[in-house]
Amino acid sequence: MKHETFHYPVLDDIRLESKKLNAFIPLAEDASMLFEKLPLGNKQAANRIAFQPMEGTDGTADGAPGEMTRRRYHRFAQAGPGLIWFEAVATVPQARASAHQLLLTEKNVDQFKQLVDEIREISLKENGYAPLIVMQATNSGRYSKPHGYPEPLIAYNCPPLEDEPLPAERIVSDDGLKRFEEAYVNTARLCQEAGFDGMDVKCCHRYLACELLSAYTRPGAYGGSYENRARFLKNCYRAAKSAVTEKDFFLTSRLNVYDGFAYPYGFGVSADGGLTPDLNEPIRLVKELKQEFDIPLINVTMGNPYKNPHVNRPYDRGNYVPDEHPLEGISRMMRGVSDIQHAVPDLPVLGSAFSYLRQHAGNLAAGMVSGGHCAMAGFGRMAFADPGFIHELKDTGTISAKNVCVTCGGCAVLLRQGTPAGCVVRDREVYKL
User: Fold this and answer.
1) To bridge 315 with a disulfide, which of 348, 402, 407, 420 should be the other Cys (CB 3.0-4.6 Å)?
2) How would you class 141 by CB atoms within 10 Å of its CB: exposed for 0-12, middle for 13-18, buried for 19 or more?
3) Are 337 and 377 in contact (CB under 8 A)?
């Protein structure tokens, strides 16, 4: 069905449209289960709502949190999520996604620690509990722009992402990948020193670790077979694990289970052609990460925000009109999240892509959690636009339409420009296109 913009003032409108589309969009009237505690390994989240890693592009030149970074996380802390999935922090300078992406180093670790402490103190004061805080450790791969212009580090040439093949020197060698793996040792050590509860070995949205999962055409030890394609991610885990000294510190991932590109250029897609999801390998990978690295949760996502953003965040306005209805995109995400949760029932799954439903986003989150389709609901764009929705949902059982994210894509435009990113609609005094 063709693309349409949001036009659902009441839940029954979504139910009716979902039925027409045969879309999987479980809704619940009662959102109280979102405020139940969730055990995560040796730790516990105070509720089932997480703020996703929304990058602000507002760090200092040396990678420390800037004043706008601190403002953003102070707002997040006041809002009261059970988990704050802290934004992408580069593991090496050459893999920063912008000149202002955060980069954790020996010189600035105390500034990160100060911000982590402030998040906990603010939330304790405002909400009576501190959130769990997970730092996202990243290698931006083909989207590296450490000096403000593209300096891609690619796993292989990928026609769906390139107008023409990139130069061979841009393909990271096996030895180069090994050096990138080793960087996770120091990042994990500093992450613990900064006081984070855990670290995400980022493997989503076609950054380097994610891209390698689809490296069917790459020769050598990191391409071809499943074992080779998963090698980099697992070696990054092993490197990080070797540096873990804090008893309760944990590793996890925000993981693409479906890229949305046809074989042999996408992970989690059927090899028979087309774009039909096939989650056999993603399920295998999640099970192996749990068994080998004792991950206490997995954060499930899809797509590529640079090329097919409608797959991971259905929208009203963007730089192209998708060839599917937004509710079909939400359905694909919810089915994928549910499939992973049911395949690994003893591993809490954090779901994504709730924000599109605006004032009804809490009803979808509640439907997914109460139906056993995920254990926790993650909000990204909504955290930028209306972080206070958590208190509103807890106190009234509903979310007002007056402050919600309108899925206009403005925050993503700012991010791609390399300028501080936030909500250009609800926080327009600070963020402007």
Assistant:
1) 407
2) buried
3) no
